[in-house]
Amino acid sequence: MFRLSKIVLIAAPLILLALFAVYRSKARAETEIDAALRMARQRRHFLMVEFGADWCGDCRALAAKLDSPALREYFKEHFDLLKVDVGQFDRNLDLAKSVGVDINQGIPTAVFFAPSGKRIGATNQGELASSSLLGPDQIKSFLRAVVEQNQITKPK
Predict the structure, then answer these.
(1) How many helices (H) and strands (E) does the chain have?
(2) Alpha helices, DSSP H, located in 72-125
(3) 8-state DSSP, 113
(4) Domain map of the chain by residue range?
(5) 3-state SS assignment for residue 135
(6) Taking the model in full, what pTM does it have?
(7) Chain segment 96-107, per-residue pLDDT in tens
(8) Is the peptide bond before 108 cis (omega within 30 degrees of 0)?
(9) How far apart are the C-alpha atoms of 58 and 41, rounded to whole Å?
(10) Which CATH architecture group holds 23-149?
């Protein structure tokens, strides 16, 4: 019995981490971006490609806020989301660079594409890097600027 308890104590946190992991390692992230762009175009949605990591508190905060009652419907109505894992800043860096993303200002960092597939811009100035400090209204205002003005702005 003691051995089983020990196994459960060790395995439970690992299982929970796997279940609630926001980012998964992508073997073919480049192919996934192409597929996500095609799907977003078909749905006439904007595409948000977010570069982040499971260990990042601000990445988890942004994910929770995008799924909050205050933002969920607006986000789902206008956006498709693809998350790309940067690991310990050692994964998918060439991919980030290829879409004009600079993660040096912190993560999460995202690049946005219009429903036409045209690149709108990226949050290379750290606009989302402090997501844990942003309220849902600030994030919604940021997303509205993407949708209505096709531009990246500092959340207000």
Answers:
(1) 6, 4
(2) 72-78, 93-98
(3) E
(4) 23-149
(5) coil
(6) 0.83
(7) 999 999 998 899
(8) yes
(9) 28
(10) 3-Layer(aba) Sandwich (3.40)
